[in-house]
Amino acid sequence: MDDRDNERVRIGIVGCAEIARKLCRAIALTPNAVLQAVGSRSLDKAKFFAAENGLSSTGVRLYGSYKEIVEDPSVDAVYLPLPTSLHVQWAVAAARHKKHVLLEKPVALDTTQLDQILEACSSNGVQFMDGTMWLHHPRTLSMRKLISNPQLFGYLDYVYSSSTFCAPPEFLESNIRVKPDLDSLGALGDLGWYSIGSILWAVGYELPVSVMALPQITCNSAGVILACSASLFWDRSPGCQEPTEPASATRRTVATFHCSFMAHMSMDLTIIGSNGSIHVKDLAIPFEENSASYEFTPLAKFVDLHIGWSAKPERTGILSEIPQEALMVQEFASLVRDIKRKGLPPESKWPEISRKTQLVLDAVKKSIDLGYSPVYL
To answer: Domain Gfo/Idh/MocA-like oxidoreductase N-terminal: where (predicted)?
Structure first.
């Protein structure tokens, strides 16, 4: 084991939202990170969080304000699970105090706000990463290798993603994700972030030519989106044609997604190529914590008389030694440590992924506001 493994990155949690409990546990499972501090709007709330998560006797610093934790010199990095409307204020403040930023999604209300956050991180030399956990699961890398193999997968034709759950009445009445002053993007920001992100991941983060929301959306009385769908369209450059196609042919890729607080639980991702297809049923949160799977169906055709398929889905199972949220923290901490120890620049991949996701999310919202007209990127 490298001796640097003993130098753990000290993380502070800013805000005691429900998901902060999950990250508290993830940090404890991560070999290169340690929970240094917890800050809330009051000291009583921070103490309650500490007691609820077994931190009372661990020496974790507790603060009764967000300001105290972002100014604490013993904190290397912060995790921010705050309402989206507060992200720009506290992410910028953290970056200006040289804290590396792990920011819960959606990262901002729009790209203008996100650019303020990213500029603060860049100018202060700190790492930015959003809290999209599934990107760090080893299943994701396995699927990427398959999609990148033209012989096995072929040309990417279509992607579909859904991210839904049926919220109880109390959620729809009082949760911050349905409050216009806290998380005005509603289901589009909370669940649509996963769907948009998974589609962009499938196409290698190439931005679509156009985005169009599909009618009709569902909103609450305050105008916050509770359910919506959209389509994305790419004109792909020539060069990826099948052998039977003319050399001048331009292939097109289409994607659709649906996100909702009002439908049964789904975290589906379907990626269809010219030679095969991938299906995932539990993308954002795997059915089991330490393992996940996906199905790949290669070169399927109908058999004689169309009474069946020539190929059945092949299931690939992937084990994970620690949960995906701990893998995310581990990756984040590794980048922070390399910046501190080696003087390396922050990894640009993560802010670029977040910004492209935000750009498409903004385009969906703009299309809704324009009466479902296409928006060109």
So the answer is: 9-129
Pairing mode, strands 210-219 and 225-235: antiparallel
Residue 243, preceding peptide bond in cis (omega within 30° of 0): no
pLDDT tens sequence across 71-82: 999 999 999 999
CA dist 36 and 328 (Å) reads 18
Q: What is d(CA 178, CA 219) in angstroms, rounded to the nearest whole number? A: 9
38-51 residue pLDDT tens: 999 999 999 999 99
Q: Which residues pair with 35 in a beta bridge?
A: 11
Residue 336: which H helix or E strand, with range? helix 324-342
Instruction: Kindly report, residue by residue over 251-273, the tens digit of the pLDDT.
Output: 799 999 999 999 999 999 999 99
Task: For the beta carbon of residue 275, count every other beta carbon within 10 angstroms.
Answer: 17
For residues 24 and 16, what is the distance between their CA atoms, to the nearest angstrom?
A: 10
Distance (Å, rounded) from C-alpha 278 to C-alpha 271?
Answer: 5
Which residue in the block uniquely carries the two structure tokens 């972002």? 70
* Alpha-carbon span 16 to 18, nearest angstrom: 7
Residues 6+ away with beta carbon under 8 Å from 20: 13, 38, 49, 79, 81
In whole angstroms, give the CA distance from residue 242 to residue 259: 34
pTM: 0.94
Task: Pull the structure tokens for residue 33.
Answer: 């990170």
CA 48 to the chain's CA centroid:
28
Rounded to an integer, what distance in angstroms lies between the CA atom of residue 288 and that of residue 140?
Answer: 15
pLDDT tens digit sequence for 101-132: 999 999 999 999 999 999 999 999 999 999 99
